[in-house]
Amino acid sequence: MSDIGSADEGVITGSKYNAPSNMESAGRGEFDVSSKAQQGQAEQELATKMLQIQSKRFYLDVKQNRRGRFIKVAEIGADGRRSQVYLALSTAAEFRDHLSTFSDYYASLGPPNPENLPEDGKLKSEMMTKDNRRYYLDLKENARGRFLRVSQTITRGGPRSQIAIPAQGMIEFRDALTDLLEEFGTSDGGYKGDLPEERHMKVDNKNFYFDIGQNNRGVYMRISEVKSNFRNSITVPEKCWARFRDIFNDYCEKMKKTSDSPSSITAENNQVPTSNNILK
């Protein structure tokens, strides 16, 4: 019985993914500093590996763009359909470790019994989180066999993407991933020190929260305005904090000068006395 799981549908468009199937890894490319890169090419492919696992091909591509380095995992089915997930390098390292655990568990199982399948098909599950992404790892069994489904979701909504790795190929997949991580490391880049603690302030019936975070784009500040069941937020990249501060300070100085001007003081003194003023 073959260990083949279904995955999301997607049409292959790149010629790379139509390469002939074989068991060898594709050649690793060096960082391209060609004229295309100098002209501002959006994305660089640093290395790639191709795996043939049963009727599926998997491409593990180490890529780099303005946000940093990551691994794109593309699954090409026997019918030519493609699905893919994206992993930060640190997430890829965590995934590699989970692959070892899932492989050990799979090895401990008895042969599949089509007449006694799990009710939901799940044999073992784990979850990984990275910034605004969640990854669900489910070792599943259906009438066609056992496979590891890797689903990627985004917390703010959007479509779910997923791949399915035949269970018999998890060790091979882990080893290929390990080779890439040994070459390119597991660091996502960005700020290395301790990030400042969150801050909070309340003005009238509103609460403002200042949270410092980090993702593969770098360090950012999220400023959230919360009022009863209403919440709104903006994200300010660390590279423009100083400019953001200067604009804010400029407004503060201009408002201070306006409030301290003689005309505003005269207007305040000419106000009709109120009960509060009289009591004073």
TrEMBL record:
Protein's UniProt keywords contain Oxidoreductase: no
Biased composition (Polar residues): 15-24, 260-280
InterPro entries (alphabetical): PUR-bd_fam
Gene3D superfamilies: 3.10.450.700, 3.30.2450.30
Pfam families from the UniProt entry: PurA
Gene Ontology, cellular component aspect: nucleus
Keyword DNA-binding: yes
GO molecular function, one term: purine-rich negative regulatory element binding
Keywords: DNA-binding
Annotated spans, Disordered: 1-40, 257-280
SMART domains documented for this protein: PUR
Membership in a protein family: Belongs to the PUR DNA-binding protein family.
PANTHER family the UniProt entry points to: PUR-TRANSCRIPTIONAL ACTIVATOR, PURINE-RICH BINDING PROTEIN-ALPHA, ISOFORM B
Protein name per its UniProtKB record: Transcriptional activator protein Pur-beta isoform X1
Species annotation: Glossina fuscipes
Gene assigned in the entry: LOC119643555
